[in-house]
Amino acid sequence: MRLKKGTFYAGIISIISGTIFLCSSRKQVVVLPDQSVLSESTEHSDSLTENLKTDETGILIVEPQNWVNEQFVLLGKPVMFRRFGYELFRCPDLNRCARVDTLYELSNRRLKYERFYLDTLTVKGVTPDEGGEWLIEFLDKRYSISLFARTKKSALQEMIFLKDFDAACRRWRGKTVFSRKGVISVELPGGNLTGEKVKRYDSLKVTDVRYGLSPLPVNPIWLMVTTAKGTEGFIAVRFSWTNTMSDQVSESLSWRDDIAEVNPMLQYDWDATTWEVIESHRITVGMNKDQVTMSWGRPLKIVDTTLNNSKVQCWNYAAQKLYFSDNSLTTIEDQGSFK
Hints:
This protein has six helices and 23 strands. It has helices spanning 79-82, 113-116, 162-172, 264-267, 272-279, 289-296; strands at 3-5, 28-31, 36-39, 52-54, 60-62, 71-74, 120-128, 134-140, 145-150, 159-161, 176-179, 183-187, 193-197, 204-211, 221-226, 232-237, 259-260, 282-284, 301-307, 310-316, 320-325, 328-334, 337-338. The radius of gyration is 22 Å and the shape is globular.
């Protein structure tokens, strides 16, 4: 039996200090695929089920053209990124802007981090822009000023869709989840993060839900978890595909690659040897697609092709190609040679 080990590591980044916003109670009901959650929005009564696009799983996506009256929160940043400010501007056309307002703006016209950190912005207008993008006009009620941003691949960085955060609080706070990647992030003395390995079937108690950081991670919601041994950490997730770059949206649950809500050991009737291989982040010929996905995550690309005159499905990872015949892994290709 040949085992193949995948690339696995946990990066260390500098994180924010000071105030971290937690879950709070709200009142508006939003219906999701398998349970009801409460939205924190009290500013307006539009249902989240209006003007939505749904994928195959029924997960809701609010498209940019339907963002009017929706709310976003500006995320905190690690110290090293704060000096760059937020990529929002006081006017839609920088060439026609008045002089720099040093109260709110940096010299490059971006907004000052310390002025707008964790502000709630309400979308007042959405206008089609070049290349299929959108010009978004916000109202910052704290300062009673308009702000403007342009999407990139139909998304805006540095902010979180407020209803996603509210719904995440209601769905996961106080519940048990499982790490699909077999790791949680843990804060070290001095404010750095490291990865703490856990088993994919280890129960993790969600003690709270917090805003993540910008520009890292891609997933803007942090589920604060505690292991059975008392280790505290978090898993970064995304509640929906709203405000996600268009090339990152998939036809699956937005948190599928990060957490499971059901113990996978109870969900899959696999023997101890298979679980040992998976927990070592390895694969072996003969594994099925669910087992490979559990060990390595989803591939970057899937194509139907032929190998040795047989029809196969090829899963492309960063350094390997895996070939499946029906539901069985038959060949592992590594850097052009067959293993």
